[in-house]
């Protein structure tokens, strides 16, 4: 059966475990190697945790992605929380407004291949991250 989109509502820390498990399953189904599966699940943890800590609730969407001859896995973390006033600052290593380590966003960017964050104060935050499979094949 072809892999399809999975949505995981994020409202409590148990949901982070579910999001990780669904991400792991999809990554394995798509044929990612063990290292990439670990990187993808670590990135899912960080953005899911941010939804809990900074926005109270939201969702993770996991889906296969094709762009040209690239194939991969896309993770979208979406919330209608407070939003981020200064995204560049939030992306700095060590910056946290919650006495956290401040490494979640820069860490997730580093773990994945593509990373985009859109945020608007009073509206919410959407992080879109992709990991490409078979990056060396052209
Ligand atoms: N989903 C979100 N909604 C609102 N603010 C967020 C969200 N994710 C991250 N932030 C902001 O970006 C900062 C940096 O995030 P991160 O690097 O994960 O560090 P930490 O979670 O340890 O504070 C957070 O402290 C917070 O101010
Ligand atoms: Mg964080």
Shape: globular
Structural class determined from secondary elements? alpha+beta
Query: What does the main sheet amount to?
Result: 5 strands, antiparallel
The amount of helix comes to 25-40%
* Low-confidence region ranges: none
pLDDT average, as an integer? 95
Output the helix-strand order: EHHEEHHEE
Strand content: 25-35%
Number of helices: 4
Cα-atom Rg, whole angstroms?
14 Å
Quantity of strands, as a count: 5
Walk me through what this model shows.
With 138 residues, the protein is of the alpha+beta class. It has 4 helices and 5 strands; from the N terminus they run βααββααββ. The protein has helices at 13-30, 34-55, 87-90, 104-111, and strands at 6-10, 58-67, 70-79, 114-120, 124-133. A 5-stranded antiparallel beta sheet has the order 1-2-3-5-4, covered by helices on one side. α1 (13-30) packs antiparallel against α2 and α2 packs antiparallel against α4 (104-111). Bound molecules: adenosine-5'-diphosphate and magnesium ion (MG). Adenosine-5'-diphosphate is lined by residues 46, 50-51, 53-55, 79, 81-82, 84, 90, 95-98, 100-105, 125. Magnesium ion binds at residues 46, 49-50, 100, 104.
């Amino acid at each position: 059966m072809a892999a399809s989109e999975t949505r995981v509502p994020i409202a409590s820390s148990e949901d982070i475990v579910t999001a990780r498990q669904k991400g792991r399953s999809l990554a394995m189904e798509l044929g990612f190697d063990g290292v990439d599966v670990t990187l993808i699940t670590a990135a899912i943890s960080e953005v899911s945790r941010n939804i809990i800590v900074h926005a109270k609730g939201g969702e993770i969407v996991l889906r296969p992605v094709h762009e040209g001859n690239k194939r991969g896995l896309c993770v979208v973390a979406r919330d209608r929380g407070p939003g981020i006033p200064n995204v560049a600052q939030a992306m700095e290593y060590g910056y946290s407004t919650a006495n956290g380590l401040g490494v979640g966003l820069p860490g997730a960017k580093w773990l994945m291949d593509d990373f985009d964050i859109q945020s608007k104060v009073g509206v919410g935050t959407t992080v879109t991250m992709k990991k490409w499979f078979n990056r060396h094949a052209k």
